[in-house]
């Protein structure tokens, strides 16, 4: 029985398709862990979803699961809102009882203080006011206990829906309308040809997806733009606008090391904002003190991405942001990119992610 853990990470479209075809012919069952929705839709007929701390089994592929979950979340959300309203009302009633009880208590004290006057004037039975007050007090305490109980029951009925916080990024559109222009560019490294005749324009708004097979030179191309690939050579033309603040999300981030505190200091970004973004991405607080090189790949990826979101930028070069990200994090990124539409050159193999965020798709021709 095969247990397959994230088989499509880093793989290009054709390789993903090959795995999907292979699994399609696999007659025995298997459990596959993946964040790639397109792939999951092709290779699954049941979904085991871990939601908060519970495991739910859904019949159908990922699309069916998403649909069912969305409907259930909507239903629960409405019910939670109603319960919240009722709980608030109970709290208000409790508050009223509290004030009432206080008033009664105050009357009792006044009663004691002026007992001699009252006795003289009204010939009231000694202790009658105190007795009535004590009775009312007991009544009000009982009522409050009953309300506390009701509140507890209603709180118990509320469903724990996974809350996905909204991300933000520090993007400001540059005054140049064109940030990067590439014409007929051929790329080589160490004398080896990678791709040829690349043409693209990145404006000061909008996501351009740059696609190509594994090893076609996408990452090398981004590094070349950033002067990080000294052995890369090119023919053709490329032009980057002057004075751009570029935020680079590398595909591999082994160069990131040390504590988050030092990391923020070295990269001149706000430590608080970095932690804030990490919290929103579901990064466990317990790992804030772990040196980056000792974090899991997924955690390192979140650090790299949180950094990119914090630094003020007018151009983003993102190399496989969806890799290692679960569907919730991917949705956070998708929502963000759809809303902000930053100037971005995006490299990604996840078809669903590209479809959602790309304004234009460019394919590399292999040399
Ligand atoms: N510094 C280097 N020296 C020599 N060859 C390199 C160097 N960096 C990359 N290469 C080679 O260049 C080719 C392209 O690598 P690159 O990482 O740019 O591909 P990619 O398109 O990003 O692939 P993937 O989709 O797998 O990330 C590979 O064959 C790689 O071995
Ligand atoms: Mg790459």
Structural features, described:
Helix content is 46%, strand content 21%. It has eleven helices and 13 strands. With 367 residues, the chain is α/β, with parallel strands linked by helices. The site of adenosine-5'-triphosphate has 15 residues, from helix 6.
Offer a concise description of the structure:
This protein is of the alpha/beta class. It folds into 3 domains: 2-52, no CATH class; 69-157; 178-366, Rossmann fold (3-Layer(aba) Sandwich). Helices cover 46% and strands 21% of the residues.
List its traits:
single chain; 367 residues; alpha/beta; Rossmann fold; 3 domains; four-stranded antiparallel β-sheet; 11 helices; 13 strands; elongated; binds adenosine-5'-triphosphate; binds magnesium ion
SSE topology sketch:
Blueprint: E1 2-5, H1 13-25, E2 30-33, H2 37-43, E3 46-51, E4 54-59, H3 62-113, H4 115-122, H5 128-157, E5 178-189, E6 192-203, E7 207-211, H6 218-225, E8 232-240, E9 246-249, H7 260-266, H8 271-280, H9 297-310, E10 315-319, H10 327-340, E11 344-347, H11 351-357, E12 360-363, E13 365-366
Parallel strand pairs: 1-2, 7-11, 7-12, 9-10, 10-11
Antiparallel strand pairs: 3-4, 5-6, 5-8, 6-13
Helix pairs in contact: 3-5, 8-9
The structure holds adenosine-5'-triphosphate (ATP) and magnesium ion.
Q: How many distinct folded domains?
A: 3
Q: How does CATH name the architecture of the largest domain?
A: 3-Layer(aba) Sandwich
Poorly predicted sequence stretches spanning 5 or more consecutive residues: none
Radius of gyration: 31 Å
Count of DSSP-assigned helices? 11
Outline: elongated
Give the class-level CATH name of the largest domain. Answer: Alpha Beta
**Termini Cα gap:** 41 Å
């Amino acid at each position: 029985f095969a247990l397959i853990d994230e088989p499509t990470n880093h793989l290009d479209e054709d390789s993903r398709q090959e795995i999907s075809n292979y699994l399609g012919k696999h007659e025995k069952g298997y459990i596959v862990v993946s964040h790639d929705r397109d792939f999951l839709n092709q290779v699954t007929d049941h979904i085991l979803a871990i939601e908060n701390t519970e495991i739910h089994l859904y019949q159908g592929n990922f699309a069916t699961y998403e649909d069912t979950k969305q409907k259930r979340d909507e239903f629960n959300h409405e019910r939670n809102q109603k319960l919240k309203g009722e709980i608030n009302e109970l709290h208000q009633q409790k508050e009223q009882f509290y004030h009432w009880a206080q008033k009664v208590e105050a009357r009792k004290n006044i009663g004691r203080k002026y007992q001699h006057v009252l006795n003289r004037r009204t010939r009231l039975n000694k202790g009658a006011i105190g007795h009535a007050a004590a009775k009312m007090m007991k009544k009000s305490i009982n009522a409050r206990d009953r309300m506390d109980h009701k509140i507890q029951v209603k709180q118990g009925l509320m469903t724990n829906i996974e809350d996905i916080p909204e991300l933000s990024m520090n993007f400001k559109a540059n005054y140049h309308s064109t940030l990067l222009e590439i014409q007929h560019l051929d790329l080589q490294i160490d004398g080896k040809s990678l791709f040829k005749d690349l043409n693209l324009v990145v404006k000061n708004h909008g996501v351009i997806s740059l696609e190509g097979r594994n090893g076609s030179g996408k990452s090398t191309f981004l590094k070349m733009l950033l002067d990080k690939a000294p052995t890369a050579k090119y023919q053709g033309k490329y032009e980057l606008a002057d004075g751009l603040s570029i935020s680079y999300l590398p595909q591999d981030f082994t160069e990131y090391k040390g504590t988050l505190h030092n990391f923020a200091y070295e990269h001149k970004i706000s430590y608080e904002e970095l932690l804030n973004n990490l919290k929103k991405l579901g990064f466990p607080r317990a790992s804030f003190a772990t040196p980056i090189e000792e974090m899991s790949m997924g955690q390192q990826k979140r650090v790299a991405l949180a950094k990119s979101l914090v630094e003020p930028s007018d151009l983003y070069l993102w190399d496989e942001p969806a890799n290692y990200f679960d569907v919730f994090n991917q949705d956070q990124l998708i929502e963000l990119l759809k809303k902000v539409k930053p100037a971005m050159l995006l490299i990604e193999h996840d078809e669903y992610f590209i479809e959602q965020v790309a304004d234009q798709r460019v394919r590399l021709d292999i040399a």
